[in-house]
């Protein structure tokens, strides 16, 4: 009786190990098949964003990684021959209401914002997620045509000129943080100390807003 139980246990272990091995191999195979497709889709999204934020015609794009404090962002130079006609910066912030936000910001040769595109964000739907078009020329918090200069851009609650997304001050501040990081990569915002509020400031600001049905 003991030998049969032992034999059954060994068989079960072998079967479970085999199933796990097959499952792992299948997952790896699927990942291999989709990895290149995902990479191509992301590259296309990035390319489209660059064209979207630089409104002038250009023949070539070169890029480089630029250090911004302890961070690194990617800067794309739009060129006609050897002349730079516009710049796009792939910037980010970790200060969103739900964490990481990635954007592409376009600048003309004088450092004026020509456009932006949100590449990735996980903000609250109907609130912080409105950043996709809130800060465009047709949006209430338009940043197009503004030059961050030495001070950067900020929402009105922080003494700036930008209208924050209704009931989503944290997301709006985070967006400004990403834009300012992009401007700093171009050598602007030399006096910028960050547009992200402290936790205490965030709580105070958000508690003063009436939000339904979700508070951000």
Walkthrough of the structure:
By secondary structure, the chain is an alpha+beta fold. It has one domain. The protein is 38% helix and 23% strand. It contains four helices and five strands. Strands 1-2-3-4-5 form a five-stranded antiparallel sheet. The longest helix is centred in the first third of the chain and has 52 residues, at 2-53. The radius of gyration is 24 Å and the shape is elongated. The model is unreliable at 190-215 (pLDDT under 50).
Strand content bin: 15-25%
What is the count of structural domains? 1
- The class by helix and strand makeup works out as alpha+beta
Q: Helix count, per DSSP?
A: 4
Order of helices and strands: HEEEEEHHH
Secondary-structure topology with pairs:
Layout: H1 2-53, E1 60-68, E2 71-80, E3 83-96, E4 99-107, E5 113-120, H2 131-134, H3 169-185, H4 199-207
Antiparallel strand pairs: 1-2, 2-3, 3-4, 4-5
Task: Spell out the key features of this protein.
4 helices; disordered C terminus; five-stranded antiparallel β-sheet; 216 residues; 38% helix; alpha+beta
Task: Give a short overview.
With 216 residues, this protein is an alpha+beta fold. The chain has one domain. A five-stranded antiparallel beta sheet has the order 1-2-3-4-5.
């Amino acid at each position: 009786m003991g030998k049969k139980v032992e034999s059954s246990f060994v068989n079960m272990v072998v079967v479970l190990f085999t199933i796990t091995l097959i499952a792992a191999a299948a997952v790896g195979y699927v990942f291999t098949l989709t990895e290149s497709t995902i990479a191509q889709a992301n590259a296309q999204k990035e390319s489209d964003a660059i064209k979207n934020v630089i409104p002038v015609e250009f023949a070539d794009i070169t890029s480089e990684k630029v250090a911004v404090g302890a961070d690194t962002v990617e800067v794309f130079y739009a060129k006609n021959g050897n002349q730079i006609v516009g710049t796009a910066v792939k910037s980010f912030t970790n200060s969103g209401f739900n964490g990481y936000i990635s954007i592409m910001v376009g600048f003309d040769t004088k450092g004026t914002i020509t456009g932006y595109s949100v590449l990735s964000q996980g903000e609250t739907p109907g609130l912080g997620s409105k950043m996709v078009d809130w800060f465009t020329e047709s949006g209430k918090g338009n940043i197009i045509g503004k030059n961050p200069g030495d001070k950067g851009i900020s929402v009105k609650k922080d003494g700036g000129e930008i209208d924050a997304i209704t009931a989503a001050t944290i997301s709006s501040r985070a967006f400004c943080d990403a834009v300012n990081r992009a401007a700093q990569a171009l050598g602007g915002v030399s006096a910028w100390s960050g547009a992200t509020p402290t936790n205490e400031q965030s709580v105070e600001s958000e508690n003063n807003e009436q939000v339904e049905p979700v508070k951000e």
